[in-house]
Design the sequence.
């Protein structure tokens, strides 16, 4: 699974995103949450400098793991 190891992430960890132009953006994890699959309103970044990564998790994909991070300068 693409995000199988996402369950090991911790608040304060770094996420690096490589853009199509080859440049990297760095995000710092600010929140980790488990939500029900029906809580669709929570699967949206709140700010333009935020990243949200989510994946199905649990027995029979009973919940979604949401990881939010803020863009870091530099």
Sequence:
């Amino acid at each position: 699974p693409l995000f199988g190891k996402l369950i090991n992430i911790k608040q304060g960890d770094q996420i690096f995103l490589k853009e199509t132009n080859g440049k990297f953006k760095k995000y710092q994890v600010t929140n980790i949450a488990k939500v029900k699959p029906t809580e669709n309103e929570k699967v949206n970044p709140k700010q333009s400098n935020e990243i949200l990564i989510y994946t199905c998790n649990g027995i029979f994909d009973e919940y979604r793991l949401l990881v939010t991070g803020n863009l870091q300068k530099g």
